[in-house]
Amino acid sequence: MGKTKDLIPLKELNLTNRFLFDEVLEDPQTHQDILSIIFGRDIPLLEQNETEKELRVSPHLRAVRMDVYAMDEEKSVYNTEMQQKKRTDLAKRSRYYQSMIDAGLLEPGIPDYNQLNNSYIIIITPFDLFGYGRYVYTFRAGCLEEPDCCLEDGAVRIFLNTRGKNDGEVSKELVGFLRYVEDTTDEMAADMDSERIKRIHNRLRKVKASEEVGVKYMQAWEERYYDKEEARQEGLEEGRQEGREIGKQEGKQEAIKNLIRKKLKKGCSAEEIADILEEELGMIQGLIDEIEKENL
């Protein structure tokens, strides 16, 4: 019983939780509704809608795992991400995601780069990454010398902030949705005039009521718990054997490296491993680099 004291029940989760976010948006209609709210127009998605889609262009390069990946009828690609924890590398992370998506869009031998799909990286955060108080930050490549000149390369990155303050500059529906993301309750949904948000909430209620999803959530939580406990115990044991503080630190690091090896074999990304072990991404990436050098 003790180990579950930190487990937040599935029914109490908000959409800021990545597990719940992925489960809810696995439904194409729900993802379509959310994209339509964000862009202020209907986004007719194809039936294909993938969660936790892994992209890898080479066995020697690190893979990325997209939260929710979809394509619309005009072949534009959308990757929608939930980022609950504030990280300093989100801007460059979005750049890497963009490059990985682009690398997989053209078939070998196609000489015309105009056939490259338009693509949108959308990252939803419960914090203001840039500090200007906006709900939406949209980035397209522009020219420093000619501010009105935009590089029309079809690549767009959008950061959504649930705690924006410029209500008069964005749609009421978008403001309502972003507030709902952080307060995912029956009461909040009932106050909304948007039929799309009500559909999203109906989908969410079905997910939370699903016994199958409940089991999956518990299994995912237990895997995280035992991974962290294993790292802690292995680190303590090796530290005891060394009998010195430095030994404890080295023991903990080696235990974490062992867990990283296991997670890499399962296809986990550095970000996922950092989340599971509740360690800094930079430290995890450094250990991954060490492991890769050891394997050369």
From TrEMBL:
InterPro entries: RpnA. It comes from the Bacteria. This is Uncharacterized protein.
